[in-house]
Known about the structure:
globular; six-stranded mixed β-sheet; about 45% helix; alpha/beta; 13 helices; Rossmann fold; two-stranded antiparallel sheet
Amino acid sequence: MKKLRCKVCKGPIVIELRQHNVAFCAEHFISFCQNQVARTIKKFWMFGPEAKVLVAVSGGKDSLALWDILNELGYDVDGLVIGLGIGEYSSSSTQYTRDFAESRGLNLIEYDLASTHGFTVPDAAKATSRVPCSSCGMSKRHIFDSVAIDGDYDVVVTGHNLDDEAAVLFGNVARWQSEYLARQHPVLPAQNGFPRKCKPLIRLSEREMAAYCVLRNIDYIVEECPMAAGNKHLEYKDLLNQMEVDSPGAKHAFYFGFLDRASKLFADDFEKSLQTNAHGSEEPLSPCTSCGRPSSNAVCAFCKLVERAAPTSEPVSVEITPRPDMIDG
């Protein structure tokens, strides 16, 4: 059997990428990952070289790798980590992020949900009697938006990788959720007071991000969020991973096939979505009377969640709709 060599230098390899039919040594695999991100940013016109970038960091491999790659590519990029109050998991996530930022001399913004708003994700899940991912996603979106706007950032980037996006697409297609399919694009432009959002890791898989972190000496939290148990997103990932074993490149073909050939079918829905708020409401937007963020109601959904979930607040009726396109990477 022929021994595999690095595609670039012909030296010993550290990883084989069957979906690309190539293998790389450590140096050229790191370059490959960085080039894939640079290529994605350029292809989808995500942001320019002078952009002020805010990366949403969770302490996991994807967001830390993304922060590292953008920094290596020369972008002005700060990190934002949110303490969600999910016990030891949140504490560890924040510490991994803090350690990474200190090791690279990068600026990290730390935002604690409990000390700022008086509740945690477990509190919200109990108060709303809904799955934790619903209130978690709502809280993170609100905080991402607020910090980005208040800090004059040009764009918020998240660590959603190819596996994440293919799994979300799988779920949306299985249910033909056209409103989500319309917004399943790696770039959501700034609109109606909400910041521009981009996903530069869409060409790279979880396996590639894990390898990148090992080779770049990036320590990250390995455990899945304990409150994500039973999340359909994880089940879809497993199904797609099984397909990938038998047909390398299946996830890439599925996701990019949608972007290249099917997403245009939802163009009208996408344009319509740009005229709505973050939760799809077509009601005119005005400042929330509590926080000042754009809302179709007098009080935005997040502030209603605060009123309901914070222990000292009077309960207020709130409707929380999960959005699969903002599950943290």
